[in-house]
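Question thread 4412

I'm putting together a teaching handout and wanted feedback from people who do this every day. The idea is simple: show students a protein as raw sequence, then show them the structure tokens that encode its fold, then repeat with a second protein so they can compare. Below is the first pair exactly as I plan to print it.
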Amino acid sequence: MGIDENFASKPLMTLLLAAPRGFCAGVDRAIRIVELALEKYGRPVYVRHEIVHNQAVVRRLQSIGAVFIDELDEAPPDSHVIFSAHGVPKSVPREAERRKLIYLDATCPLVSKVHVEAERHFATGHRVILIGHQGHPEVIGTMGQLPEGTVVLVETLGDVENLAFPMGEKLAYITQTTLSVDDTAEIVTALKRRFPNIAGPRQEDICYATTNRQEAVKAIAPRSEAVFVIGSANSSNSQRLVEVARKAGIARAFLIDDASGIDWSLLSDVKTVGLSAGASAPDALVAEVIAAFRARYQLTVEEITVTREDVEFKLPRALVG
């Protein structure tokens, strides 16, 4: 094997890989549902909204026959339609049935758990407060589990302070699954201070993958001079990873779609870089970023692992039966 004559002239760089990173069980399940549906039913299979928030994933699925649509009226009658991992309002499957569409639901089971919580609280006479980001597909889907106007959305501590309810009204809170763990804890504390009798989830709503990836970024931050998070701009969990890095003191924390998004000029004085990937970013993108660093530096790669993940979710019976 030949020796790279330029290797010795390359600057030194240490790349700290956060682990866990990349695909979670819910994302893996959703993508697999699309792949299996194409195998079973043939092209095309329609997907309402992006199956997960990652452009590389969307482009690959398009290349094998998935057609991404904004609304169900873009799918012909009797066609196969898949709902995204973020979940949908109850009106969507009703509309699919009205239009005689054959649908599969790829909603992450942990998002479905929040839907069940919302319905349980509503059934017991609670006013439901949802902590989340307005306009995010998961928030739209969760609010759409209950009658319009019955869920109150809060995004900030200021929103909590502005809440006003009739005396004695029973309250309960739920959360989007991909939020900042620390920011959400502050909002929950504020809710409990204002409304001491408020009911909460039996188990934490923020999903295990979001929590683990945020903890892993916190673990690499003390040794990192810059941090890159691989993920698309519309990926909530990826955006939160960048925020976590910045709150940990990393001013140079950036979200990138792939290796082409790296501004190498920002690393001229950097010797140690942290790298993570959002829960909807494939491993191939991580490998490309590592290769890009290796092409420019005498690279040492060190993985920092905070926990191991072994979660798996079952696929719909229609695809595996």
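The second pair follows. I'd like the answer to focus on this one:
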Amino acid sequence: MSTQELIKKQVTEHPVVLYMKGTPDFPQCGFSANVVNILKSCGVENMFTVDVLSNPDIRQGIKEYANWPTIPQLYVNGEFVGGSDILTEMYQSGELQKLFK
């Protein structure tokens, strides 16, 4: 299975997927920590996370998959939602919370 096929499988088989640096319990960058906190504030408990630091192919492949240069990246129901800045704006406006209701 290619990296792109694996990523597609991950984002389509799980309702909420977060590609991040580190894990939800031990994020390895402030942006990843920010997104985890936002998702927890939205009541998201069962997210599938992928630590891109442990897999260089995924780390590069996810940037190509969404044509988005930064990590973290959030996918909801197979759709790319955004990174830390976009998610922060969506959360502050109340738009993000609507995705999880």
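Top answer:
Good format. For the second protein you could add a caption like this: Strands lie at 16-20, 48-51, 73-76, 79-82. The helical segments are 3-13, 30-41, 56-66, 84-93, 95-99.
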